[in-house]
């Protein structure tokens, strides 16, 4: 049975970056320094804008749960590498998506141009490689980062491919959100196990935690894109639908008695006024919203269960608390 859907309008998560150490912020500033002013400015925007910093926080908490004593220098560098990979992907994504803003500020490519934005993202990737080269287990970590970087690219391209061909499916959608979001969170959680040469069962547990957290997070993000409020999201509602992207709640509607109507709206990319409101109405009528929240809750429970394989302590508890703070209304 589907559980009642929480209020979408209150599900924008609070900031969770308070647990990051000053050592992390300083290392991030240091690694982004450049003698080229525009690159320096984009780096300053990244540090100043902050954001939730979920991925590096997961990395530092996972390292602590495995026995690293904060602020462990290697763990901090690893967390910075995670943030650099994420930030580089955002610079590229904003350009691809023709986004106006990022974290409440004008998107970098609109301020500095396409070339500067893309090359600044590449600069971050190069700095990431330099940092990785100094870490224990460099070869394993570099391979893991390379594999995830390719998955992120494949996830983004697959999303456009499915929309272009008009052949959405649950399998394709899960591949997309794993590549776009969950693969990097999985790496954020599991990379400390590679760094610290942890037991295989602990690495597997952290991979499950990061993967399921990432899947839940993207499911929530996609649901908010469809049913949230623009003033709270800071971006237009319904952008996925207007790009022909069939997210989880839309897939649920395609399987409902309203499937043909929904497919028509999806194929014309919700161009007529009223299409978005119609999909929102159908999502409530056919329980697509509630079903999506139920899938999010299932993923979060799998992430929570994975933590049982880790030693008890404050870091493990904070990893569990993070699940509640990210999506507070599911409990």
UniProtKB/TrEMBL annotation:
A molecular function (GO) term: metal ion binding
Family note: Belongs to the FPP/GGPP synthase family.
Alphabetical keyword list: Magnesium, Metal-binding, Transferase
Protein name: Polyprenyl synthetase family protein
InterPro entries per UniProt: Isoprenoid_synthase_dom_sf, Polyprenyl_synt, Polyprenyl_synt_CS
Superkingdom per UniProt: Bacteria
Gene3D superfamilies: Farnesyl Diphosphate Synthase
CDD domains tied to this protein: Trans_IPPS_HT
PROSITE patterns: POLYPRENYL_SYNTHASE_1, POLYPRENYL_SYNTHASE_2
GO biological process, one term: isoprenoid biosynthetic process
């Amino acid at each position: 049975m589907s559980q009642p859907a929480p209020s979408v309008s209150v599900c924008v998560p609070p900031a969770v970056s308070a647990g990051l150490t000053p050592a992390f912020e300083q290392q991030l500033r240091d690694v982004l320094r450049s003698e080229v002013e525009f690159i320096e400015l984009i780096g300053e925007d990244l540090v100043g804008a902050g954001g939730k910093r979920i991925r590096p926080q997961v990395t530092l908490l996972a390292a602590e749960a495995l026995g690293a004593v904060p602020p462990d220098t290697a763990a901090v560098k690893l967390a910075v590498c995670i943030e650099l990979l994420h930030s580089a992907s955002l610079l590229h994504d904003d350009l691809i998506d023709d986004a106006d803003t990022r974290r409440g500020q004008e998107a970098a490519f609109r301020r500095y141009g396409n070339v500067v934005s893309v090359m600044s993202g590449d600069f971050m990737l190069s700095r990431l490689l330099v940092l990785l080269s100094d870490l224990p287990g460099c070869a394993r970590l570099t391979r893991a980062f390379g594999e995830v970087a390719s998955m992120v690219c494949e996830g983004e391209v697959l999303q456009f491919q499915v929309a272009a061909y008009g052949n959405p499916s649950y399998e394709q959608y899960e591949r997309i959100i794993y590549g776009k979001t969950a693969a990097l969170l999985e790496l954020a959680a599991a990379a400390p196990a590679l760094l610290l040469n942890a037991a295989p069962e602990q690495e597997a547990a952290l991979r499950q935690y990061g993967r399921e957290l990432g899947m839940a997070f993207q499911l929530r993000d996609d649901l908010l894109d469809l049913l949230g409020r623009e003033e709270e999201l800071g971006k237009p509602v319904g952008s996925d639908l207007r790009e022909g992207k069939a997210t989880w709640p839309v897939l649920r509607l395609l399987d409902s008695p309203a499937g043909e109507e929904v497919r028509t709206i999806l194929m014309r990319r919700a161009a007529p006024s009223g299409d978005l409101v119609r999909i929102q109405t159908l999502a409530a009528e056919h329980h697509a919203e509630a079903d999506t929240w139920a899938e999010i809750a299932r993923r979060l429970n799998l992430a929570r269960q994975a933590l049982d394989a880790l030693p008890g302590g404050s870091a493990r508890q904070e990893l569990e608390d993070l699940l509640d703070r990210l999506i507070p209304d599911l409990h």
